[in-house]
Amino acid sequence: MPATRRTVPVWVWALPPVAVLAVVFLYPLALVVQESLAPGAYGDVFASASFREALVTTVWLAVASTAGCLVLGFVLAVVIAFVPFPGGKAVSKFIDVFLSFPSFLITLALLFLYGTVGMANGVWTDVTGEPTGPFRFLTTPWGVLLAEITYFTPFVMRPLLAAFSQMETAQLEVASSLGARPLRIVRQVILPEALPALATGGSLVLVMCLNEFGIVLFTGAKGVTTLPMLVYSKAILESDYAAACVVAVVSIALSVGLYVLYRGVSRRAGA
Amino acid sequence: MLVHSRTGRWTAWVTFAVLFVPLFALPLLVIVAASFSTNWSGAFPSGPTTGHYAAAVRGEALQALTTSLVTALVASLVALTAGTWAALAGAALGRKGKRVLDALFMLPVAVPSVVVGLAVLVAFSQPPVLLNGTRWIVILAHTVLVTAFAHQSVSAAIQRLDPMYEQAAASLGARPSYVLLRVRLPLLLPSLNAAAGLCFALSMGELSATMMLYPPDWMPLPVLVFTATDRGSLFTGSALAVVLMATTLLALLAVSRIRTKASFR
N or C, fewer C-beta in 10 Å, chain B? Predict the structure, then answer.
């Protein structure tokens, strides 16, 4: 590298994008923190039952969704990768496309499937002759859980499929020729290989579930309030910006903390 | 091959179908089916119609579609420029500097989109810069949100780049600007395309920050889908959703066509 010809040091080139980011993102974020420090704001929010309820709902929904996505994503990815069937390629393509759609479409679809006048209740009333069907979980946290597992499972499958495609199939052949049953191969050969991908995919999904807003908004359930939903209702519906900023700061702390963990995990996993 | 027995294979496949079809394939099919019907009170939708689509391509809906397209296009282009610049500048820095830059630009992913919306709303509703109530605040928020993804994918592509090419060009006396324009950027073109498609798709479907910010005269398509379903017009809402999905898919398809062309260069 002919260093003598260079007139400006390299770090100067990093300044313009950082300056833009500071103006459009870091400065607004700092203002949110500043606004949250209004006298009494933290005390009021932490004392309110709705905030504590939202915090608990957010965390358990995110943890349960992540667990569901990990189990479901692992099972589906193992079948696609190791029990190949015609159309498996198309399924992988479909998953890529699925990722590019917004999350609230899932809730919209679930309204037609399990809503009060949806498909499942329609079949039930047709078969049994009862006036209403038994499926009314959609406006409860279980409806949000189902939607989140559906939407976020592909985010686990993608890194898993990438990891499986690099796996030595010889290992499987050896294990199986030595007489290991399929379930044992999954447990003792495939699962250890999949752990890094499961860790990265799982922590990404956990952060995304904590931040999810569209699914909860479309559910329209008054009983399901998560932290992002609380930020929206405080700021837009009640115009209580100080409270909204406090909830936002808590939400940021939760998500960024987990995200730092995610980066650490994925770096260690070599992704 | 993991499972050798015939019954074992079929068990795996049936399990797969039982999980995959109702969870992933059915929701999309249901939205498409609902968009063509007027009524859904039994097992299947009834009253076939294309009326929702006729309504979805004129008036308010058409305006929402163009709003979304313009927002996504502007946000993706700005995000791609800023993200690529930051990624290139980061690659030139040392290990520590690159880490700081990466962390800064990834922060918008970790922060909830609703909070990004709130932050932009708080910051640009007061002097020195007043953007609240204009379309620029929506476009700004979308740009912030998608820049992180543009930066991430371009940054990963730069790491995979073979340094031999630029070293060869530099050793033949090419100036750094020439190496950048004629060697590095053309080599990065496929990943730039992929990043553009990702940014476009994300911006088209963005709802969280937009709900915090949109002015009445700049209402993107996802917001219209929400307002339609919120007032009970589920069938109109699903037609709008199908239009949204189709537009996103077409854009991704166009980008992947450019990509295959670019890889022939």
Answer: C
Residue boundaries of the structural domains of chain B? 52-263
Q: Return d(Cα B103, Cα B116) in angstroms, integer.
A: 16
Residue B143 has pLDDT above 90, yes or no: yes
Q: What is the mean pLDDT of residues A86-104?
A: 83
* CATH superfamily label, B52-263: MetI-like (1.10.3720.10)
Instruction: Tell me how far CA of residue B4 lies from CA of A82, A182, A213, B7, in angstroms.
Output: 11, 9, 44, 9
Question: Would A165 be classed as within a structural domain?
Answer: yes
Residues sharing a CB contact under 8 Å with residue A87, sequence separation 6 or more, in sequence order: none
More confident residue, B183 or A66: A66
Of A27, A235, A258, the CB nearest to B212: A235
Instruction: Give A-chain residues touching B133 at CB under 8 angstroms.
Output: none
Cα distance from A82 to chain B (closest Cα, Å)? 6
Chain B residue with Cα closest to A249: B115
d(C-alpha B213, C-alpha B132), whole Å: 8
| Mean pLDDT along residues B77-101 | 87
pLDDT digits (tens, 9 = 90+) for B175-228: 888 888 888 888 888 888 888 888 898 899 899 889 888 888 888 999 999 988
- Chain B CB contacts of A261 below 8 Å: none
From B8, B40, B113, residue closest to A211, measured CB to CB = B113
Can you say whether residue B211 is alpha, beta or left, with left for phi > 0 and alpha for psi between -120 and 50 degrees?
Answer: alpha
Closest CA to A133 of A141, A123, A143: A123
Domain that holds residue A85: 41-268
What ipTM was predicted for this assembly? 0.85
- CB atoms near residue B54 (< 10 Å): 11
> Which chain A residues are Cβ-neighbours of B180 within 8 angstroms?
none
User: Mean pLDDT across the stretch B96-125?
Assistant: 87
- Which pTM does this prediction carry? 0.86
Contact A29 B111 (CB under 8 A): yes
Q: How far apart are CA B205 and CA B236, in angstroms?
A: 17
Q: Is residue A211 part of a domain?
A: yes
d(C-alpha A234, C-alpha A241), whole Å? 7
pLDDT in tens, A136-164: 777 788 888 999 999 999 989 988 888 88
CB contact under 8 A, A119 and B176: no
Is the CB of residue A104 less than 8 Å from the CB of residue B222? Answer: yes
What is the per-residue pLDDT for A65? Answer: 94
Chain A CB within 8 Å of residue B93 CB = yes
Q: Is position A174 within any domain? A: yes
